[in-house]
Design brief:
By secondary structure, this protein is of the alpha+beta class. It is built from 4 helices and 2 strands, in the order ββαααα. Helix content is 60%, strand content 12%. Strands 1-2 form a two-stranded antiparallel ribbon. α1 crosses α2 and α3 packs antiparallel against α4. The protein binds zinc ion.
Length: 83
């Protein structure tokens, strides 16, 4: 299992063996470096999902992963997209 954290402009990641899991962690941490995106708020998740779509990451896996972490915010963003 992969894990990561971001502090200011430093990105710390420990990568596991699963490719999608690794990409998800890297995307999660890189999204923290984007403007207005330091906390796990709506702007952060919009940036994360935009970035993930751009590289063709599996969105279902990413959304499920992030939902386990922040179910209310991620759920509200997904619901809006499905309307
Ligand atoms: Zn985070």
């Amino acid at each position: 299992m992969s894990s990561g954290r971001t502090s200011r402009w430093r990105l710390h990641v420990t990568l596991g063996t699963d490719r999608s899991d690794r990409e998800g962690v890297i995307l999660h941490e890189v999204a923290h470096l984007m403007p207005g995106s330091t906390n796990h708020d709506k702007t952060y998740y919009q940036n994360l999902f935009r970035l993930a779509r751009r590289i063709g990451h599996d969105m279902e896996i990413l959304i499920e992963r992030e939902k386990r972490y922040k179910p209310r915010i991620v759920g509200s963003i997904k619901k809006r997209r499905e309307d």
